[in-house]
Amino acid sequence: MSDAAITGSALYRQRIAIPPSALLHVRLEDVSRQDAPADLLAECTVPAEGRQVPLPFRLEYDPARINPSHRYSVRASIAVEGRLLFTTDTAHPVITGGAPMDVTIVLVPATEGNTSPATTQRSDASLVNTYWKLLEVGGQAAVVGDNEKEPHMILQIEEQRLAGSSGCNRLIGTYEVTEDQLRLSPTGMTMMMCPDDLMQQERALTTALRETTTYRISGQSLDLFDGERLVARFESRYL
């Protein structure tokens, strides 16, 4: 183990949990040349393994490669199965010019403008911990009522909880997923009365969720199937 190392932690402000398979990637770069890409000096990957932010890291580097007249910075990202979730958008100076050796790196949600090797390898949204907006159910386009929440669902990692809204009432329940097999069990909801079209949508959605046996994710779209029959379609949204 090298004695030369940058230590610290990475975090984000959003109240979103990351799955156990999430990976924190930290890079040390020479950013002295403004007219050229940064030079990579060292990097490390830290598995979340069920932990939430802040995630600690120790990034070892070769001190022989450090030039006291140069500027160095660290940046970080969090990805799940190749999908970029969070990344840095500001510089975090280290080592030279009075910069610290211990830093707190604040990440922001990734957008389509943020690219990395991970995003080019896989661009599919994650099934869990993603806000899925309902687009279609039972062959009918989703309806959003006046002053009502849009219909959606979130499959939360904690205790495999199903949460969301039919567009009228709040949905709660559980789910089980194995490879491409998916079982959804809406177990309850609030009992508010809404216009007929929203009530029909609510019945269609709860039926579709209970009938779901498999799913398919393509990019930012999620299709739910009962066997080979499409029962509902969703699209991911950033939280």
Q: Tags for this entry?
A:
elongated, 239 residues, nine-stranded antiparallel β-sheet, eight-stranded mixed β-sheet, 2 helices, 9% helix, mainly beta
Describe this structure in words.
Residues 112-122 have low confidence and may be disordered. The protein is mainly beta. The longest helix has 16 residues, at 196-211. The chain starts with a strand and ends with a strand. Strands 9, 10, 11, 12, 13, 14, 15, 16 and 17 form a nine-stranded antiparallel sheet that branches. Strands 1, 2, 3, 4, 5, 6, 7 and 8 form an eight-stranded mixed sheet that branches. It contains two helices and 17 strands.
Oligomeric status: single chain
Structural class: mainly beta
What number is the mean pLDDT? 86
pLDDT < 50 runs, ≥5 residues: 112-122
* Basic shape: elongated
In DSSP terms, counting alpha (H) and pi (I) runs of 4 or more, how many helices? Answer: 2
Beta strands, count? 17
Give helix % range: under 10%
The biggest beta sheet reads:
9 strands, antiparallel
Query: What is the string of SSEs from the N terminus onward?
Result: EEEEEEEEHEEEEEEHEEE
Q: In percent, how much strand structure appears in the residues?
A: over 45%
Distance between the termini: 39 Å
Radius of gyration, whole Å: 22 Å
SSE blueprint:
Elements: E1 5-12, E2 23-30, E3 39-47, E4 55-60, E5 72-80, E6 83-87, E7 92-94, E8 102-109, H1 117-121, E9 131-137, E10 140-141, E11 152-156, E12 161-165, E13 170-178, E14 181-189, H2 196-211, E15 214-218, E16 221-226, E17 229-237
Parallel strand pairs: 1-8
Antiparallel strand pairs: 1-4, 2-3, 2-5, 5-6, 5-7, 6-8, 9-10, 9-11, 9-17, 11-12, 12-13, 13-14, 15-16, 16-17
